[in-house]
Each structure stands twice: as C-alpha cells, then as structure tokens.
From TrEMBL:
Topological category with respect to the lipid bilayer: Multi-pass membrane protein
One GO molecular-function entry: purine nucleobase transmembrane transporter activity
Location relative to the cell: Cell membrane
A single cellular component GO annotation: plasma membrane
Keyword Transport attributed: yes
Superkingdom classification of source: Bacteria
Transmembrane segments: 31-50, 62-80, 87-106, 112-130, 142-166, 178-198, 205-228, 248-273, 294-316, 328-349, 356-375, 387-411, 423-441
Organism from which the protein derives: Ligilactobacillus ceti DSM 22408
Transcription found in the keyword field: no
UniProt xrefs under InterPro entries: Azg-like, Azg-like_bact_archaea, NCS2
Protein family per UniProt: Belongs to the nucleobase:cation symporter-2 (NCS2) (TC 2.A.40) family. Azg-like subfamily.
Protein name: NCS2 family nucleobase cation symporter-2
C-alpha cells in the first residue's frame, strides 16, 4: 500500500511540475536542488556575519536567512515552476550593514524598514507588469551578454573563494600561491572537469563531495563535533521592519529605499535572464512565466524584511543545479526544504567552505560563458554594450552595475550606427533610469 501511495505522489509531482516533459526525472531534480543548496549554503553563515556587524543578533539573522530563503525557493518552484533559488543577496547585504547602518548611522531596524518598503514597491511594479515589460524589452544580444557576464562573475567568485585568484595591491588581482586550502579548490576543479568529460551524472556534486572529504581528511577543514543543533530565536528581529516604517522620514532615507529597490530590481532581472538562457527557457526573446518568477522573488523580499534580513533575490548559484540537469520547479522546492532542514544541521554545513564550492562556480561559469558565441560581435553597436556587460559584472563585483554600463551604452551606440529607431522606447527610459541609478550609488553620503 505504501508503494502504491508513493507512486501516486510521484505521478502527481511529475504532472504538476512537468518533469518528464522537460526531459528530467524526480531523482535528477532532487540532486539538482541539493547541488544548488550546497552551492549557496554559505549564505546561512555569511549573512549573519555581515549583518551582525550592523548590530543585529546573529542567531536571529541566521534563522531569518534560512526561512526567507526557503520561502522564496518554494514560491519560485511551486508558483513560477523554475529551478531558481532565492536567498539574501551578497553585495546588497554589505551595503545594508556598512554603508547604511555603519556609514550613515542608520539603525538596523530603520534599514530593515527601508528594505520592507522597497519590497512593497517591488511587488506593485511586478503586479502592474512593469518589471516583465523591462525584461522583455532588453535585446536578445544583451540577454546573451548578461548570461555570459553572470558566468564570468560567478567564476570569479569561485576563483577568489578558492584562493586561486587573490588580491594584489599593484595589479588588483593575481594568481594565488597554491598553498593550504587552495588545494581543496584545485582538486575539486580537476575532479569536476574530469567527471564532466566522462559524462558522469551529478559530476559537480560528486566533485564537491570529493573536495570536502579531502579537506576534512587533511585537517584543512574542521570536522563537525556534532551534527544537530537547536534553531536560534527570531524574536530579536521579527517584525522590526514593520514597526519602524515611520522612521523613513528624511530625503536620505528615501534615497536608501530607492537604492535597495534599484539594486535588487536589476540584480534579480539580470540573474533571471542569465539563468533562463542557461536552462534554455527563453522563447522568442521572452522568458515564460516571468511574471510569476518576479512575484516570487519580490514576495520573498517582503517576507525576508519582516523576518529580519537584507533584500532577498534570485541566486546565480542556481546555475549549479541547472548544470546538473535541474529543469523544473521541483529543484527549487528541494532547495527550499533543505534550507529549512539546514537550520537544524548548521554544524554539518560548516564543512561546505568557499574552497569546496569554488569548483562548481568555476565550471558553471564556463558553461554560461558559451553564450558569448551567440552575440553579434561583427556589429560594433552591439559588441560595445555587450562587452561592457561582460567585463563589468566581474570587475565591479555586481550584476546590476555591469548591466547598467551596457544598457547606458546601448542606445548611444545604436544611434551612432543610425539604428536608433530599432531601440525599444523602454530601453531609452532605462538609459535615464540607469544614469540615475549610478548617480544615486555614487552620490556623496
């Protein structure tokens, strides 16, 4: 009887998510969800560390991060049916802590209120389909550049996290010294490449497991002393965003809200486009169900603020799950469930260091960079803005900043090439929006 019920459940999951139609299996979707989770589980520890510097309770932020990520992932999977995970975004959490709270002297409670208001505006823009219109208006060549640029960006994150690329005062970055924990990343990268070339299913995840075991065996990664722990209380941060909305009462704080809105808006838009390109979801230069995807991440942003964390958005690490075959929303649901379970197994997650995830990010970067071949490089008016997006994302360490450089340049080069009439009116609007966006980000504090 249990087997029969299990088969019924399996058939319902297949039917709802269209797993077989997408050429996948439930087992593969679960592996993809697990791979995505492993690739981004670091946020459970990094986010509390960053927001903790702003005076927030680290335990509460840890729990808020896990729950907000789970909510967004499950929404994305069930509602939008995409294998795209969400979590508090790196970069904007640093802006929250170091620029807003520490730099401007704004309390973390007020900053959370700013995130909450930005999320509400986000929801309204999504409901009125303005975000969907913007994504559809971006030319196909720039979408390929966005996807490839994200690939370069996450590969750079992997190289840096693995210690293969290190900071250098004279040249900004240089090759690492291949000592200590860097070998964890190197072994993982070699293992990933070999396993993928041998067409081994789940090659990325297996390679991450190999590198983690190597790290523990050599003492470079501390083995966990226990596996289960209690979940920290949310009480210090829960609903602080709502109760402090009235604190948003100055021009400076309105600018903070707009900054949260703009950075999250374009980070998410760029990430969704890039991941949709990687997974082959784009049809006629449009992303199916983009409205549902946008509503999922904007809802997660509002929920995350109420729980007590910085803006939540689509995560580029979802590309790791897509690379191992994740094609349906069941991948994202699996990731969401694992975020909830991760709250109880935090000691075990500490084994997943940046060196362990480095190989997955680098290889996925290679796969996403293949979209560069689809750009019309022979047309300079297309090549210039595309290149700025490609190079801008990794060098500014920001998807939204790289996107801004390319979209600002696109109308200029098209007009210079006497092709201005081919530019969508919305792209001209975006030109001025991004000019303002960069001005706000760089305005004197």
């Amino acid at each position: 009887m249990f087997g029969k019920r299990g088969l019924i459940v399996k058939n319902k999951i297949n039917a709802y998510f269209g797993i077989e139609e997408l050429g996948s299996t439930i087992k593969r979707e679960m592996l993809a969800g697990f791979t995505t989770f492993i690739s981004m589980a670091y946020i459970l520890f990094v986010n509390p560390a960053i927001l903790g510097d702003a005076g927030m309770d680290k335990g509460a932020v840890f729990t808020a991060t896990g729950l907000a990520s789970a909510f967004g992932c499950i929404m994305m999977g069930v509602f939008a049916k995409y294998p795209i995970a969400t979590a508090p975004a790196l970069g904007i959490n640093a802006f929250f802590a170091y620029s807003v709270c520490i730099g401007m002297g704004v309390s973390w409670q007020t900053a959370l209120a700013g995130v909450f208001l930005a999320g509400i505006i986000f929801l309204l823009l999504t409901i009125f389909k303005l975000r969907e219109m913007i994504i559809d208006a971006i030319p196909v060549d720039l979408k390929y550049a966005i996807s490839a640029g994200i690939g370069l960006f996450i590969a750079f994150i992997g190289l840096r996290g693995g210690g293969i690329i290190v900071p250098n005062k004279e040249t900004f970055v240089s090759l690492g010294h291949f000592q200590g924990t860097t070998w964890i990343a190197v072994i993982g990268l070699v293992a990933t490449g070999v396993l993928m070339l041998l067409n081994v299913p789940g090659a990325i995840f297996i390679a991450m497991l190999i590198s983690a075991v190597f790290g523990v065996a050599t003492g470079m990664i501390d083995a966990p002393t226990h596996f289960v722990s209690s979940v920290p209380s949310l009480k210090p941060t829960l609903f602080q965003a709502f109760t402090h909305v009235t604190d948003i009462n100055s021009v400076q704080l309105v600018v903070v809200v707009l900054t949260f809105l703009l950075v999250t808006f374009f980070d998410t838009a760029g990430t969704l486009i890039g991941l949709a390109q990687q997974a082959g979801f784009m049809k006629d230069n449009k992303m199916p169900r983009v409205g549902q995807a946008l509503l999922s991440d904007s809802s997660a942003m509002v929920v995350g603020a109420l729980l007590g964390t910085s803006p939540v958005g689509a995560y580029v690490e979802s590309s790791a799950g897509i690379a191992v075959g994740g094609r349906s929303g069941f991948t994202a649901v699996t990731t969401g469930v694992l975020f909830i379970l991760g709250l109880f197994f935090s000691p075990l997650l500490s084994v997943v260091t940046p060196q362990v995830t480095a190989s997955a990010l680098i290889i996925v970067g290679v796969l996403m960079a293949q979209n560069m071949a689809k750009i019309e490089w022979g047309k300079l008016e297309i090549a210039i803005p595309s290149f700025l997006i490609l190079i801008g994302m990794p060098l500014t360490y920001s998807i939204s900043d790289g996107l801004a450089l390319g979209i600002i340049m696109y109308p200029i080069t098209m007009i210079a090439a006497k092709r201005g009439k081919e530019v969508s009116p919305l792209m001209y609007v975006l030109f001025f929006v991004f000019v303002g966006f960069l001005w706000i980000l760089n305005a004197p504090k």
